[in-house]
Model the fold of this input.
Amino acid sequence: MSHRDGGRVKLVDVARAANVSLATASRALNQPEIVREPIRRRVEEAVRLLGYSPDRMARALSSGRSHIVGAVVPTLGNAIFADGVEALQDRLAARGYTLLLANSQYDPRKEEQEIRAFLEHGVDGLVLVGDSFAPEVLPLVRQHGVPLVTTYVCTSGQGIPAVGIDNRQATRKMTRYLLELGHREFAIIANTALPNDRSKARLDGMVLALAEAGIRLPSDRIVEVALPSIAYGRRALSGLFATDPAITAVLCTNDAVAVGASSEARRMGLNVPRDLSIVGFDNIEIAAEGDPPLTTVNVPADEIGRIAADYLVSVVEGGQIPMSTRLDAPLIVRDSTDRVRSPT
Done:
């Protein structure tokens, strides 16, 4: 919509219609959290009535920033990433930034291509997942001088700020919990067949906890699947029990795999948890709604997304942030786990 004199509606027109200063109108749109609500509402109403649309190109030229952030996640098929992206986008929007999103499908080369495209489009910053990238990625990002925050891991070995959890320690504790319930016959279903440093760390934590208890799993009790899906979980459990029905506990590196394993166990006539205890990882919504509800580790995806947004904007605007931020990942005990039953 155009202004009544035939030209483009400008911010000064919005300020005049809302009876506020130009600076106040700008703050109401770009930093709404610092503007009193009645004033902010007047500005928003003026924007709506006049059909004002910010000239982002002019804004970018004057500030040297695009106010656009790029994020690459492995997949949006996993609810944990979808939840994190939603929180990231909402927080960035509140700070006056727009999110561009891509998924890599767990392919480092595809991730590199998406990052390169974002950089060519002049993003102010990048949000990635994990700490394992194609060799060209970090030199490319540093060459462009674009700030980067990685997520779902709490530390990076590559000198970049990280916001997330200690995946290895979380599954170590989870495994110890099952050991305390008396389990000794374990199997693992891990979505590590494709590059996934978070699931690899979770697998390492499981194996470490078992080794500390004097248990070394044979290779046929560790099934690596390509994707974190219910279908892969079903197939993995079926294969495990076809060769080794003595298993009493199955550790899974994500909830979708665990839900699939639990579903397949029921199909096979096994009672979960009386015959078989199953644990997952992520605490997605379906975990609490299964039959039985799933014991799992809670990944605070919303908090990760919000903090990543705040950190990245802070760096873009000249601030300092910590290199490592570790969030809690507590075990949520539900009905899919129980003490191992005594032989009859």
Remarks:
- The radius of gyration is 24 Å.
- The longest strand covers residues 68-73.
- The chain has three domains: 11-54, 64-165+300-326, 167-299.
- Residues 79-94 form the longest helix (16 residues).
